Amino acid sequence: MAKIKHNNFLDSVDDVMVRAKEEGVLHLYASGSTLSGRYLEIDGKKHYHFGTTGYLGLEQDPRLKEAAIQAIRDCGTQFPLSKSYISHPLYEELEHNMAAIYNTPVIITKNSTLGHLAVLPAAVRDEDAVILDHQVHWSVHHATEVLKTRGIPVEMIRHNNLNMLEEKLRELGQRAEKVWYLADGVYSMYGDFAPIDELMGLVRKYPQLHLYFDDVHGMSWKGKHGSGYVMSVLQELPKQVLLIGTLSKTFGASGATVVTTDRKLYSRIKNFGGPLTFSAQLEPASVAAAIASSRIHLSDEIYERQQDLQNRISHFNRLLSQTDLPLIDHNDSPVHFIGTGTPATGYELVKLMMQDGFYTNLGIFPAVPVKNTGVRITISKHNELEDITGLVDALSINYKLALEHTQTSLQRVRRAFKLPEAKASDTLDASKYSGRFQVSLESSITRINKELWNTYMGGKSIYDWEGLRLLEESFSGNEEQENNWEFRYLVILHNQEPVLMTYLTCALWKDDIFSKKEVSAYLEKERKMNPYHLTSRVLSLGSLITEGDHLYIDFNHTDWLEALNLFFRVLEDLEREFQAEMIVLRDFRKDNRLHKHFNLQGLVRMDMPESARFEQFDWESSADFISSLSKKSRAHFRKDIATFQEHVDVQIRPSLNRVELRRCYKLYKKVKKANLGLNTFTYPFQLFQNMNAHNAYEFIVLCNDDDDKYRLILGVMYCYKSGKTYVPNLIGLDYEYVNEYGVYRQLLYHTILRAKELGMERIDFGMTAGFEKRKLGAEVIENVSYVQVRDNYKLESLGILQGATDKLS
């Protein structure tokens, strides 16, 4: 089978960023010739600035500015030499002052990202293991890529989940000398804190545990001498804790600090810490500004500034508590996150706030799950109390407008973030989707008018009315939970004419369904002990066993977009009813007209495995068909198909006897086991029994025809007749004979001949093996799906696993 084209995470991120840029909320440029901290000018308009990470306003302090200017005059714009050889004259005082702030010697790095790249490979030894907090900063995640190339185990836990951490500790501790837990002190999106006291309790319980904190968002506004949030809790730095601080953001200059009381580790990092050794050092202006800031930190002035900022934060929290705005985490950090749910509502709120003269940040995928978009607001010393009052007043008005403009509700947002809901009915009832449309939401195809369904949804794959009745019967009452599916049928009519029709299923999927086969092979070993490891309940357009255009929309109807928005509301309610962890809308062309609307609702585009379709029936005989192929394909036919024809017997069977059916089911399971590129659970035998009894199914059976060999079924194609479409939707192969008799290619060829014989107009060949199908004249189609996850944890866990298999393969 041909390799599957796998999803590209960067393409998905780019998709979201491009949409946000088009909406005018990302990749903006500040205008004007000056910056003050309190205001930000965009397109010539002045905005109150609530997006800075300079929480104490030190980047605008005259002392820092003058120090930087004087350093340029005295030392030039840079000192272009590795710090391993010699540091420029200003470094010594900065290192001395930072050591006084932390009460231990420090290492200065160019920035925190380079700091992580320098520190982690030096601190984590080959015999160690690493556990990432799910929400630790991207720069920490990125630095662990280097560790994977050395075969160091890198795993992940859900955010601040100490039970999960302890479980991983016990597991990894059996084979690792040290286990490093990587976390933020203050998390950059929601402003919540690491549970430092509880983590230190685990350090005492498990001596192997070492903690690595990125505290760049906790720096300066908290702690003795502004040493940060982590130090405010710890007071003194234990040997088992490695701390990354910053000289940028709130500190007001540039650079980062590496702090450890482990002298051997300190020496190892300083002597050979990658970017520390080979990268340029901080510019004199940056070091001078940092020196000026460090002097403030070492004086009592830092505590006055901290208290001043805390007064502003308290004022903001007090005002916010008098509103119904969904604040995601209640804390006293400068970072706050107001949830909007969908990107569409987030874009709209940011734009409305800018119209009223307030600049705030958009928090969007991949920093947060795409359905957990929101507005990130930072409070700084630049913000006057009246500015903060005006901000909350504007938020209260504009939040309601943003919900109204994007046809959503506060209830839906609160559900997206699992916040306590306002009083409302939780019952899923189609009658609540009132308005211009007549809406039917049914749990069985038998409750849908057969003629109506087949007119608009028939003739495509196996999801005409009869095909869906077969699937309902096959995927219910099975022993295995993965083979019991929930079905829902949605019909939206206007004046008795359909505007939108579809069906959905909720079923248990393997999270690696579209991952690399190496990832699936690794996970299948894990599933021998835990069959449901890394699996999720998925609400999907269509089903695992069908493919094609599952969503009918009458784009000529003036209100089709309103019907689509109604569909999104139904999706949310079904997600909640089934407790689904993921929504997957499948089988769309890349250039489909719904792309923008899916993005705005928080659905991220992902590549799917290629599928194939055959429609070239303008030939009369098998000889004509072969002549219609390209020269290269004809050579392929002679070598890989014609050579074996005299050795096989091909029969078209309307049904199989009991022994044959068992044999064919066994062959299906062989294909299922071998095809990890599309990793699903094994379908139940009940499905094959129902197919065998259904008059729309037939079986292309290939047996050996050698006189001196025992007659045996070598392969079978399970084919469904859906109007003028022929659907070979499952296959069984005996891999012991697949090469000897060219079994797979023979089955493809005879499928085409059979479809021609039946007068079909199209063959839906299904996913994977597009290379083989193309040789016989099929068109290979690149489809995409749109995915929405409840949180990013499982996707990122698969990303870590995929990265590890890449490095080790």
Automatic annotation (TrEMBL):
Gene3D superfamilies, alphabetized: 3.40.630.30, Aspartate Aminotransferase, domain 1 (3.90.1150.10), Type I PLP-dependent aspartate aminotransferase-like (Major domain) (3.40.640.10)
All residue ranges annotated as the BioF2-like acetyltransferase domain in the record: 631-768
Keywords: Transferase
Coiled coil feature spans: none
Boundaries of every Aminotransferase class I/classII large domain copy: 53-384
Cofactor section: pyridoxal 5'-phosphate
A family per Pfam: Acetyltransf_6
Protein name: 7-keto-8-aminopelargonate synthetase-like enzyme
Organism: Leeuwenhoekiella polynyae
